[in-house]
Amino acid sequence: MALLALAGLAATTGCGSGGCLMPYVSIPARIEIGGISAHGSIPSLQEDGQLEESGSAKMLHLRAGINPMQGFNGWHGRSWDVGGGYLAQWLWPEGQPNLLYHGFYLEGAWFPLTPEKDESGLRLSLVADAEVVLSGFGDGAEVGPGGSLGAFLEWSGTASTSYAKKTGGGMGSSAGAIGALYGEWSAGLGVSLGYRRLWGMNYLTIMVGLTFRLPFGAGLAGISN
Hey, what's the torsion of the CAs at 106, 111, 112, 114, to 10 degrees? Predict the structure, then answer.
């Protein structure tokens, strides 16, 4: 019912003398952040155009993508998942400038351990992805392949709820929100091994990190004078 109310209120979205009304949407997404190190032949393009090679580097890794099957409560007990999105990787080689590599990925996951359809519980997620990695931004960026294999232990559940809240905003104003959450959520910890190749150089990454899954959400937030 909350989503029907949102559709009716959307026509009034905007700001006026009486206050502001703003819509918001969250997509069914998986976010992963972590890092430890990279090893192998880590390339670094210098300002003079020369390539330098480092054997190891500290590493921070971030990825965020859309996993559409999370948007359906009835699929929570499934044994597999697919998604895709954007990744960024920061490297700090010893004695070399800091590096930022980024790109796009498609992933697939298998859940050998999963909760019951409508219950919260532990889930084991084995994830593999294929990547297109870029050395920078613009037409001159080097492009190379990449991929990773990871295992994550998640606490997972489902959300199917609507909400309406109103609070005092101070100075005679009030604020409120109406919306709904639907789909799958989780939080977990895991490890992964990755491979990237740029300028003919190959390196491996070792990551320990966190993973989060977000359900679909939509709503309207407003403040009135």
Answer: 180
Instruction: Confirm whether 7 is domain-assigned.
Output: no
CATH number of the domain that residue 128 is part of: 2.40.160
Where would I find the beta strands (DSSP E) of 27-170? 29-34, 37-45, 51-66, 80-93, 99-113, 121-134, 143-170
Flag whether 24 is in a domain: no
Give 139's strand partners: none
| Residue 2 domain flag | no
Cα separations (Å) of 20 from 44, 142, 166, 177?
48, 45, 14, 12
Dihedrals φ, ψ of 65, to 5°? -155, 175
Q: Are strands 173-198 and 201-214 parallel, antiparallel or unpaired?
A: antiparallel
Cα–Cα distance, 23 to 5 (Å, whole number): 12
pLDDT tens per residue, range 105-125: 999 999 999 987 778 999 999
Task: Quote the number of domains for the chain.
Answer: 1
* 15-to-129, 168, 212 alpha-carbon distances in Å: 43, 18, 34
Is the pLDDT at 142 greater than 50? The verdict is: yes
pLDDT tens figures, 90-105 = 999 987 888 999 999 9
Helix/strand/coil percent split, the chain, to 5: 10, 70, 20
Quote the pTM value.
0.80
Q: Domain range for residue 87?
A: 30-216
Residue 41 domain flag: yes
